[in-house]
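4.2 Preliminary Data

To establish feasibility before requesting continued support, the project team ran the inverse folding procedure on a target of 383 residues. The structure was first converted into the token representation described in Section 3, and no sequence information of any kind was made available to the design step. The complete token record follows.
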């Protein structure tokens, strides 16, 4: 059965988390449950389950990051309050989750927090592989009964300890992990805390690693003559940073465009290149300019990346920029800004390759890069 109804987006247009819709699902005995859904409907799904009686606030940051990493995220609200944890309530939660999973068009990876983990474990212990592609239990409290249930779970499962707060290794936890037939476990403290900026980031890194392994996308093929979109998708498998390439036009006005086709070419002499589409409005300026700038963007400059990739925007308005020593526009706050003298220009299909000799580079060692992968913005998950 499909979700019963859709309500309009509640996030502002252009929100980085993607469009948020609220869907309603039939739970056990027809109870109506709501779920917030973000991300592209063609992306593999992840279902986030909160602790019993908790809303989705604890999952908010994780949900947004998963969408940016190319996942469709379904944040399901459970019925009842935190106090509703009688055996009848628990059984209803379990049946609710099974009913919702059966209504989804594809099998998600289920990621559940604390007592939500108990619900997910019990919902998936029977026919789990038909309902979900994998299970992640974050800080789930364990006891003898749940360990016995875990032993019957025929689904790839990742147990994460310390996902929300510091964990304690207990014999019960070890027995639970050992009981899982297709299980793996990680303690955030041991694994990632030294590398990640915070606990949520460390948790996210573990989630993404598991999800990528347990819910791989289908392989797609490009052959000469296939549509350019497939080639673009193939090229998009190469993760890059993002730059804004700038120059002054004949009237001394700044011009620029977003480009990820940037590559370092040579150290001696110091050369770099960028590929520019012949159809781009900035192409004539870059063809004529004796100098150009390449501004490598940091994570906070995503709005600038959007702006310099969108037609009809006044790209430099309200943006901190200043002319460099050679006059080229340099964007304040960039990770690194290169000022280049035009070395050569090579025609290459529907693009031209612009090679520049670096005359000056200013860089900021402390910021994180803005990344681009498979058509979406990304950020580093580890330092
Ligand atoms: C992440 C990203 C990377 C891009 N990389 C390039 C590139 O390397 N070369 C290019 O010509 N256009 C690239 N584009 C597209 C241009 O930024 C976009 O077409 C822009 O509107 C061109 O502006 P213009 O026509 O005013 O020059 C990229 C866009 C994005 C979002």
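Position-by-position output of the design step:
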């Amino acid at each position: 059965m499909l979700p019963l109804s859709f309500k309009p987006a509640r996030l502002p247009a252009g929100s980085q988390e993607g469009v948020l819709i609220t869907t309603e699902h039939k739970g056990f005995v027809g109870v109506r449950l709501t779920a917030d859904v973000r991300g592209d409907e063609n992306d593999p799904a992840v279902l986030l389950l909160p602790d019993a009686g908790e809303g989705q606030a604890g999952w908010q940051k994780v949900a947004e990051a998963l969408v940016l990493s190319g996942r469709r995220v379904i944040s399901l609200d459970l019925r009842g309050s935190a106090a509703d944890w009688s055996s009848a309530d628990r059984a209803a939660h379990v049946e609710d989750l099974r009913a919702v999973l059966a209504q989804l068009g594809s099998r998600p990876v289920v990621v559940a927090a604390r007592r939500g983990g108990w619900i997910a474990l019990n919902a998936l212990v029977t026919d789990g592989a038909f309902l979900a592609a994998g299970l992640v239990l974050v800080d789930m409290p364990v006891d003898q009964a749940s360990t016995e249930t875990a032993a019957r779970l025929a689904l790839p499962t990742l147990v994460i300890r310390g996902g929300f707060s510091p964990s304690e290794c207990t014999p019960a936890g070890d027995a639970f992990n050992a009981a899982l037939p297709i299980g793996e476990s990680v303690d955030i403290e041991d694994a990632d805390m030294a590398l990640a900026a915070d606990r949520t980031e460390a948790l996210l890194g573990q989630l993404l690693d598991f999800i990528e392994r347990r819910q791989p996308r289908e392989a797609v093929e490009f052959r000469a003559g296939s549509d350019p979109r497939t080639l673009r998708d193939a090229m998009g498998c190469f993760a890059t940073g993002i730059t804004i390439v700038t120059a002054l036009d004949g009237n001394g006005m700044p011009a620029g465009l977003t480009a990820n086709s940037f590559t370092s070419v040579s150290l001696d002499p110091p050369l770099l290149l960028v590929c520019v589409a012949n159809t781009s409005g900035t192409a004539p300026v870059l063809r004529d300019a004796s100098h150009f700038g390449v501004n490598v963007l940091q994570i906070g400059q995503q709005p600038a990346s959007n702006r310099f990739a969108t037609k009809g925007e006044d790209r430099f308005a309200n943006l901190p920029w200043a002319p460099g020593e050679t006059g080229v526009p340099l964007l304040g706050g960039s990770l690194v800004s290169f000022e280049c003298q035009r070395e050569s220009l090579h025609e290459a299909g529907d693009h031209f390759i612009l090679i520049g000799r670096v005359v000056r580079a200013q860089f900021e060692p402390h910021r994180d890069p803005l990344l681009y992968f498979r058509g979406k913005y990304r950020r580093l998950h580890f330092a």
